Amino acid sequence: MKLALQTDYALRTLLYLATERGRATVGELAAFYGISVNHLGKVVHQLGRLGYVRNVRGPGGGIELIREAAQITVGDVVRDFEGRNIHLLDCVDRPDVCVIQPGCALRGVLAEAERRQMDYLDGVTLESLRPVSGGIVTLKAP
C-alpha cells in the first residue's frame, strides 16, 4: 500500500498534536516538517471535518486534537483519507478484471494481506507512537 500525500500529512499533523499536547498553527507544523502551508491547510481542514481536530481562530488560536490520542488509530486515519477500499490490486475487490481470476489463488493471498495490514494499523494509536522521552524535538522530520 502506498499512502497519498494527504494521508501522510494527516498522520504527521495528528502525531505532532498528540506529542505536543496543545495547540499548534498550520505554519508551525509546515515549518517543522518542511512542507507546503497551503497543502497542509487543506489537510487540517479535512481533519476538522472528520472530527479529529478543532480549529480555533484568533489570537492564541490554532489547531488541537478533539479526541484523546489513545482513541485515534492509524487505521482510522488511513481509511478516512484513502477510502474504505484500499487494495493492492483491482482483482481483490472486483470480479472479472483478469482472465485468470476465477482460479487464481493470488487474489485470496492479497485479500488476507490487506486484512492483516489494516488489523495491525487498527491496533496502533497515536498514544502508542508518542516518543518515550516526550516532546516533539525527539521526532525526526523526513
Automatic annotation (TrEMBL):
Q: Which NCBIfam families match?
A: rrf2_super
According to the record, the signal peptide region is none
Q: Which organism is it from?
A: Singulisphaera acidiphila (strain ATCC BAA-1392 / DSM 18658 / VKM B-2454 / MOB10)
| Superkingdom, natural source | Bacteria
Q: Which GO terms describe its molecular function?
A: DNA binding; DNA-binding transcription factor activity
Record GO cellular component, one term = cytosol
Specify the protein name: Rrf2 family protein, putative transcriptional regulator
The alphabetical list of record keywords is: DNA-binding
**InterPro entries xref list:** Tscrpt_reg_Rrf2, WH-like_DNA-bd_sf, WH_DNA-bd_sf
Name the Pfam families on file.
Answer: Rrf2 (PF02082)
Q: Which PROSITE patterns match?
A: HTH_RRF2_2
